[in-house]
Write a structure and sequence with these properties.
Elements lengths: L10 H21 L5 H10 L7 H8 L3 H13 L3 E5 L7 E5 L1 H22 L4 H17 L9
Antiparallel strand pairs: 1-2
Amino acid sequence: MTPVSESTDHTGFWMRMVSNAVSQSFARKVETEGVTVAEWAFMRALYDMDPMPPSVLANRMGMTKGAISKLADRLLAKGLIARTESAADKRVHNLGLTREGNAKVPVLASLADENDAEFFSVLTKEEHERLDLILKALAERRGLKTTPVD
């Protein structure tokens, strides 16, 4: 019989365990502000930027135009983003944060900071820095560009 590895023998198992715990904790935090993690990522991508076409935002976030459209519809309904016509081309529309959306981004960013601090505080500063370096190297070398939203 061929030996079968344990799921815990795989680095991916441990990465997923940690990722799930961090993501679920953060999701609960942003839900208190009435948004999802995906909506937060969308809003953060628009923060400090001029309004932009959905296609540009999709490219920046590494997402499909369909996914951007669904997120935009949800955020429009919440009054956190606005859709405006392009001054250059009336057939094109741009997406940008509303005043309320712009004010909410720093609140959500502080929740992200808090979540990271809570979760990774069990590591030494050096361990945390090494972990960041390794994860960034993996993402770069694998060409990973899609904004994680779930």
